[in-house]
Amino acid sequence: MRFFLFLLFSCVYVNLSAQIGHWPNGTKSDNYSVYALKNIKLYIDADNFVENAVLVWQDGKIIASGAQVKIPENAVVIDGYQHYVMPGFIDLYAAEAGLEFSKSPTANKGAYSPNEATAKYGNDAIKADYKAVTQLTGAGTNDYAKNGFLTLNSFHADGIIRGASALFNVSPLSIHKNIIHDDAALMLSFSKGTSAQSYPGS
Questions:
Q1: pLDDT tens-digit profile of 135-145?
Q2: Which of 9, 15, 79, 96 yields a CA-CA distance of 20 to 30 A from 184?
């Protein structure tokens, strides 16, 4: 009987110890396919590049690159003819980058109710209806590119709830071709910003 109970508890212990008790660190994907991007102009740095190069990656990691790379037989092959690939940084907190504001919002010092029949909230510190992509022109982002930043997550840095940011690439192409995600993230802050209303006070 003791031997039977010992085996039972051992099985339970092994089963419990095999469970993951925490979230895995980093982004995870179930897609383990191998991808190969061929016929590209691959930049090593700002001055050096490789023509007709191949870039191979799997599970979010680059496993091979260059002109003499053999494409794996099981790879998903993408023809990148007349496209450029270069290393670059991503700025996920690029406040106001590439945004041009047509007019300044009018401060509401009175009642906490919207003056118009829109999605605008009554409290000026709440700008959940704002979408950065509506004022995204890409202007003024040359300094980012010069410092190695190629992808920016831009938002309007005003209010407690600041609305949706826009994720885009920095390149000479027109801005609508550079947008990666027009509703990338909901931006929040502890600062009221330009709101002239007294609430909230903490």
A1: 999 999 999 98
A2: 79
